[in-house]
Amino acid sequence: MPLYKTITVNSQTTVKIWKIDESYDDLIQPLNLKPESLTRVLGMKSQLHQRGFLSVRHLLRSFGYTDQDLYYDDNGKPHLKDGKHISITHSFTFSGVIISNKEVGIDIEMQRDKIAIIAKKFVEYEFEYLDKSASDYINKLTVIWGIKESLYKLFATPGMLFREHFLVIPFTFEEDETICWIDYKGLKKRYTANYLEFDGFTCAYVIE
């Protein structure tokens, strides 16, 4: 079982990352999926998405949960029946789950040059400190996207926009955390965001 990395953030919060190298058949065989989960996975056109979905259920098992313990609200935000907070992500060959006693958000992204093409859609303030000619420009954009995606997952509030409502203060890769803010309809909240890189991917997570 390729549990790739476990990060114990604190006594109440754990991140687990899975490297998806099993086949669809090997992933689904040991799982007991709810009927709606089975319908969902069978309806996916991409086996990559199917394997991502199933690997998340294996991560749940590694935490001591089953598919039956997980449900989604009307905004698509996942919840655990025991009241603990959870956030889920998967990207190509990696998936991740964070579970905490506090609200959380997590995102994994493949580092790709194409992110520079869409940067204007999710970056505004951050352009003040980003250097487009720097060798780490793509990596920094990927961190910013991951942090903003994590904030969005934490709040799961329709109408929030990455460019207008979330900001990430300057950061370096010598450290593994930075400060980020939500500024939305009079709500101003400050968070610490963590980030790490591995195998051409970036993971970011935010805890309330």
Question: Could you please describe the fold and organization of this structure?
Answer:
With 208 residues, the protein is an alpha+beta fold. 27% of the residues lie in helices and 35% in strands. It has 6 helices and 11 strands. Strands 7-11-10-9-8 form a 5-stranded antiparallel β-sheet. Strands 1-2-6-5 form a 4-stranded antiparallel β-sheet, sandwiched between helices. A two-stranded antiparallel sheet has the order 3-4. The longest helix has 19 residues, at 137-155.
Please report the total strand number as a whole number: 11
Q: What is the helix tally?
A: 6
Taken in chain order, the helices and strands follow as EEHHHEEEEEHHHEEEE
Helix percentage range? 25-40%
Mean pLDDT: 96
Enumerate the spans where pLDDT stays under 50 for 5 or more consecutive residues. none
> Would you tell me the structural class of the helices and strands?
alpha+beta
Overall form: globular
Proportion of beta-strand residues: 25-35%
Question: How large is the radius of gyration?
Answer: 17 Å
Taking the sheet with the most strands, its summary is: 5 strands, antiparallel
Span between N and C termini?
30 Å
The spatial strand order of the largest sheet comes to 7-11-10-9-8
Search tags:
208 residues, globular
Strands, helices and their partners?
Blueprint lengths: L2 E8 L2 E7 L4 H5 L6 H8 L4 H17 L6 E3 L5 E3 L4 E7 L2 E7 L3 E7 L8 H4 L14 H19 L6 H4 E3 L8 E8 L2 E12 L2 E7 L1
Antiparallel strand pairs: 1-2, 2-6, 3-4, 5-6, 7-11, 8-9, 9-10, 10-11
